[in-house]
Amino acid sequence: MIAGSFFSGALDYNSREVQNILMIGLGGGIISNYFSTMEMLKLNITVVDIDPVMKKIAEKWYEFDPKPMKRIIVDDGLRFIREANKRGEIYDVLLVDVCYNEHRALMAPVEDFLIDEEIKEIYKILKPDDALLFEEEEELMA
């Protein structure tokens, strides 16, 4: 997902301008932490996760350190996107890494992110020609 953000052209490694990243799904905070090590870039990172426990885990065990340009918001990702649209927020890249907590054929992304109306909302917060990257996990048949 990190490499895809740059290879897609959504993020520019040589830019000195602020680049806005929205991540839906925190995990342990490893991806956002990695982005924050790119100190030569001005990356404004917003991470949204529905589970407050994930925020606590990221802060305690994965050294997530909130800063003015790096934050975790506990909220439903799709609700956050709809509200971001109302506020007129625009992001350079959106990384969606949300999955089910149960075994199923399609683990990620959760199906709500595949609904046409939600996809339209998602694209409204992206700049033209920027990227939406999904983490996709399927059950493998042996």
Automatic annotation (TrEMBL):
Classification lineage: Eukaryota, Metazoa, Ecdysozoa, Nematoda, Chromadorea
The protein here is known as: PABS domain-containing protein
